[in-house]
Amino acid sequence: MTSNYVKFEAVCRILEENNFDKSRLIPILQSVQEEYRYLPEEVMSFISSSLSVSPAVVYGVATFYSHFALKPKGKNIVRVCNGTACHVKKSAAIIDAIRKKLGLKENENTTKDMMFTIESVACLGACGLAPAVVVNKNVYGQMTPDKVVGLIDEITEAR
Amino acid sequence: MEKHLTINGKKVEFTDERNLLEIIRKEHIELPTFCYHSELSIHGACRLCMVEVAGRGIMSACSTPPEPNADIKTNTERLIEMRKITVELLLASHDRECTMCAKSESCKLQSLARRLGIEEVRFKNIARKEPKDVSTYALVRDNGKCILCGDCVRFCDEIQSIGALGFVGRGSRSKICPAFEMDLESSECVYCGQCSRVCPTGAILPKAEFREIWKALSNEKKKVIIAVAPAVRAALGEVFGVTEENGTEIAGKIVTALRSMGFAKVFDISFTADMTIVEEANEFLERLKKDDHMPMFTSCCPAWVRFVEQYYPDFIKHLSTCRSPQGMYGSIARRIMPEVLGISKEELVVVSVMPCTAKKYEARRAELAKDGVVDIDYVITTQELALMIEEAGLHFTDLEASAFDTPLGFKTGGGVIFGNSGGVTESVLRNIMNSNGDESEEFNFVRGENGVREAKLKVGGKELKLAIVYGLKNARRVLRDIRADKKRYDFVEVMACPGGCVGGAGQPVYLDLAVRKRRSKVLYENDKIMELHKPQDNPYVQKMYKDYLEKPGSKKAREYLHTSYKYRKRFKETLEIFKSPSDKAVNVEVCVGNNCLRKGSKKILKRIVEGDKFKGAVNAQALICLERCSKGPVVKINGETFERCAPDGVENAVKEELKK
After folding, report:
1. CA-CA distance, A63 to A78, in Å (whole number)?
2. d(CA A22, CA A49)
């Protein structure tokens, strides 16, 4: 079975689970993004046709929420909190350290090998742990540039 | 019980008004708004209609329902200051090259800035610098002028049910765009242009092409002929501050103006509207007899035609094959007029004046071209005609009236009322009732202001059911009822724009419904003073048939006056399921549109790709959508379409194809 078919079938399943209900557009897009790690245009068109809404509506929702990605994301997503507390505790240095470690140029957020995507987010609600970093679904508190580089090494070695 | 509230200290009675804004405007207070239209849903985004409600603070009048005994103030110092800041902020993100903007003078932002006495903008200008979207023949979009009121988005969605435009992004980065930020031509737009009518600024405008016409007019080797659509005479006067009861005087002034600009002949589209009726009524009676794809739909509105082609391919055969009056004018102008006027084909330049933006697109339809050359060179709107008159320095109001040129200038009242919703139906009735020996000429029951109107009448012992529709969302509802067998009609007239062509997007911008009603009345009054009312009585139409086209529905008439339609895809997207490395691979495209998907097209796709049974020699694609929804699942194998497919059948067909 081709991987494209598996993904297509997953989108169909997600639509069925949501009863092709247009008011469930956001949860549908969330689930689809988990499959593809982003929202490809043709899949958004397919969703719009299946829900009988115009593609402009789907695209509008997808661009409104920063959670949705229109470009492929890496396998591991590193979210660095840049809320007030984390910012004061020097989250900027953590972002710099990660970008340097991953060799990312300006305006580049995903590594060429599609292993890592770095995102800066506004407040994760973990201000007590500032500065906080979330790698995939795990939260790491009181980070330093050294610690975060260590985290990335761990993931790379575990591969 | 009577309900009252107080506006600026005055006690005012109210009944069922939806919001404070309606009550305040009834009191003749022009509270400014950008995002409020009585035709559209309430958005509450522009924050200009703010009022002070005692005990509640500052509220937006458009989204606040009235409460008895409320004490409302509309113009306090706080409110004035607030409105000023709002407009200043809008101006700060606005491309303020107003002197070069076609919307200048009718721009709401400009007039509001003047009304509020804004003399400087205290904020840095951060207008979006983006190239304009000039991809269509009909419209130009300029995001630098957009104030994000969302009127275009809501009109396209709520009245036309298209949704070609939407909001993209968020906050300071938000803008209005077609899906995936593609250009308008690649979107689902049907070119009705109503977005440009409701746009308060110059962010969406009809595309102007009149400057090209000046070039043709100054070229001595060219003879430029022009024809004016019926609805134009009902609205052009508004630009010059003149209105009259029946439009005759204004039509006459238009003729004089066009002659003095150098047009060789000035014709009237109402003439070809007469021909359209004769031809279309004949087609209708024949189809009625044979029960050939009934109900028959009118085909004079290009936005409606495009809508059927995009969304209802199974209804394409229901469209009358008659060209629109503009289409017929183009054909006659190109193929017959050179001989009649004694000018060579190379010299001839053909222009039309339309109340419509979609007509610009229609003129360029490949189906209306011969050997790749379109019949009509330029289509200008009523707005553009007004600009040409101004540019030529003509005092429109002082011009003498003169008559249209023959033969394409003589018309009956039946051709003139084409510009109103219901006009086509009424003219068709005048024609067919006559051919059935009935002498009645009054078919006023098809007139009216509602978006969907139904009528019944007896013709030759048979009861005919008619529907007259405007607005594409209304049309969608009617089509759905027809498809579900809930309604049965024989004849359906659809115009995309509310009110028909008089409310077209090429007309001077109107926002008050009273203006549209007045235009509509002008055309009916014009009909009244006409010598003839039935299109078939037009002696020049009769002569045209006698000399060139034999009779309605003849082979010649079909060649000159009819056209064809085709399915136009809405989405360009396909989902690549498997791409074969071989260039000789069999292409299998499976429709995964809504209907096919529910009828099991996924299983077909699965059968093709599972277990690598074709050893990678098959390209598999999921497609949205092949639009044969009632006959799904639909599969295309190497370009050949198969309906009502099942996995086994498709697998066998692919095997057969591989053997070839």
Report:
1. 20
2. 10
B80 falls within a domain: no
Residue after which a domain boundary falls, among B561, B596, B624: B561
Q: How far apart are CA B300 and CA B498, in angstroms?
A: 15
A3 contacts chain B (CB < 8 A): no
Look at chain B and count its residues. 660
User: Looking at the structure, do residues B201 and B223 belong to the same domain, yes or no?
Assistant: no
Nearest CA distance, A31 vs chain B (angstrom): 18
**Residue B347 clears pLDDT 60, i.e. is over it:** yes
Report the pLDDT value the prediction gives residue B572, as an integer from 0 to 100. Answer: 59
Query: Rounded distance, CA B94 to CA A51, Å?
Result: 36
Interface test with A, best of B176, B186, B188, B571 (most A CBs within 10 A): B571
Q: pLDDT tens across B85-94, in order? A: 999 999 999 9
- Residue spans in chain A of domains classed CATH 1.10.10: 3-64
List where CATH 3.40.30.10 sits in chain A: 76-158
Task: Give, in words, the CATH class of A3-64.
Answer: mainly alpha
pLDDT of residue B444: 76
DSSP string of B424-476?
A: HHHHHHHHHHHHTT------GGG--S-SEEEEEEEETTEEEEEEEEESHHHHH
CATH code where residue B643 lies: 3.40.30.10
Q: Minimal CA–CA distance to B72: which of B115, B29, B16?
A: B29
Same domain, B547 and B595: no
Give per-residue pLDDT as tens, A29-44: 999 999 888 999 989 9
Mean pLDDT within A62-82: 91
* CATH number of the domain residue B136 falls in: 3.30.70.20
Q: Is the pLDDT of residue A49 over 90?
A: no
The minimal CB distance from A55 to the residues B179, B597, B620 is found for B179
Kindly list the residues from chain B whose CB atom is less than 8 angstroms away from the CB atom of residue A46. Answer: 573, 575, 592, 622, 624
Domain total for chain B? 4
Token pair, residue B166, equals: 């939407």
pTM for the full predicted model = 0.91
pLDDT beyond 60 at B438: no
- Return the residue of A nearest to B573 by Cα: A42
- Residue-wise DSSP of A14-68: HHHHTTT-GGGHHHHHHHHHHHHSS--HHHHHHHHHHHT--HHHHHHHHHHSTT-
| A45·B609 Cβ contact <8 A | no
| CATH number of domain containing B259 | 3.40.50.1780
A56 vs B166, B605, B620: nearest CB: B166
The first and second tokens of residue B48, run together, are 């200009």
| H or E, element range at B335 | helix B325-335
Architecture of domain A76-158: 3-Layer(aba) Sandwich (3.40)
B153, B221: one domain: no
Q: Do A56 and B164 touch (CB under 8 A)?
A: yes
pLDDT digits (tens, 9 = 90+) for B234-247: 999 999 999 888 88
Domain membership of residue B9 (yes or no) is yes
Q: What is the pLDDT of residues B623-633, one digit of tens each?
A: 887 777 778 89
Q: What are phi and psi of B91, to 5 degrees?
A: -65, -30
Whether the pLDDT of residue A1 is over 70: the answer is no
> Are B303 and B412 in the same domain?
yes
Are A49 and B605 in contact (CB < 8 Å)? no
The answer to whether residue B585 sits within a structural domain is yes
Is B654 contained in some domain?
Answer: yes
ipTM over 0.85: yes
Neighbouring C-beta atoms of residue B143, cutoff 10 Å: 19
**Same domain, yes or no: B258 and B273:** yes
Domain membership of residue B580 as a residue range? 574-659
| Residues of B recognised as catalytic | 280, 283, 300, 320, 359, 362, 367, 501
Which amino acid is present at B587? N
